[in-house]
Amino acid sequence: MREDLLHFIWKYKKIQLEQLATSKKEPVIIEDVGSHNLHSGPDFFNAKISIAGQLWAGNVEIHLKSSDWYAHNHEQDPHYNNVILHVVWEDDAEVYRSDNTEIPTLELQHYIPPKLLTTYQNLLDKRSYSFVNCEKNIAQIDGFIIDSWLERLYFERLERKSIWVEHLLKKSKNDWESVLFSMLLKNFGSKINAEAFMSLAQSLDFSIVRKIQNDILQLESVFFGMSHLLDDEKIVDEYCLELGKEFKYLSNKFDLQANNVQRPNFFKLRPSNFPTIRLSQLAQLYTMYQGLFMKIMEAPRLEDLYSIFEISASSYWNTHYTFGRESKKSTKRLTRNFIDLLIINTILPLKFCYARHVGKDSNDEIIAIITAIKKEENAITRNFTKHGISVKNGKDGQALIELYNEYCVQNKCLQCAVGNSLLQS
Fold this sequence. Notes:
By secondary structure, the chain is α+β, with helices and mostly antiparallel strands. The protein contains 17 helices and nine strands.
């Protein structure tokens, strides 16, 4: 038995409501279960319960065993003085408030339908599934429930990502342009170089970027130099030497410190994802736009964002992937797939947070953009598709990643609309 199941049973009245009685045989009638409290304090606020003919208004606390009241030191906490009913699976001890008045106890194990317990046990039986608990039944859930749940999950994901945005905002003293720069750097690094690129963002004050962003040579020299990509003395390439000379000058001018910047990796990367190409593309983006943050915030449609990110690395990189080694000529543009990832992981979380800061509701705009992005292909989305869940767009993909990582893996079936629906039925 798990406490979250008892919460579910109480919240949705999944018990035999007739002839309920406390452990001391006092009749119990539930008028209102109260509102579920997910924070500290009693589990349900403002319940209305008739006990032995007397109507009480107050809070309800739920435990597996009555003795958990003392294990959690509730008898010493004044927040629990207004508990009118102690709901437990097993009543193994009498419970008193801090003023020594006894709290009536309802022992649920006598009133829960056996079928509900069987359904719940089957849901958590690891032998019955290979991917997620509900994989055998998820396709049976009403499509409206699934769609509504996925939209909510997508915004839960934005909420979680906003924690990092708020951290960066505080660190930068409310400089949104600086926050955007840090987030773009991290995501231009993708999975392999995210940490290295983030170390560059942490060591390079964005005020310096503002001062040199009109000069692509200076901007690239700082990006490459601080990332230790100009350190190889064997490279005598003319452009590399020019960058090195510029970086030396700017290092002295701005007192640039690169000791804590990690050198990015090339290993296991496709050439188009090499850090040299990505840093040049980012430098081009900042050379093209002054006030990039507001330009992005004021872009209401996906096509507007695509237009902003229609950039390519500087001309040197048309014939190079690394310094000093020529390659077949090609323009190193950002692909739509890469831009989609930037929008998903950087732009939309920023739009969400910024709208909240200025008191604007951007939810409709965000939904319009994310649903216009094509669906992701990864192990999680493929497995959900295999078990009957349609993945139509970027919103569904992000929501299913959130569902899998934050609910399925953690067995939070009772907090999930799918698990909830299966148990309700």
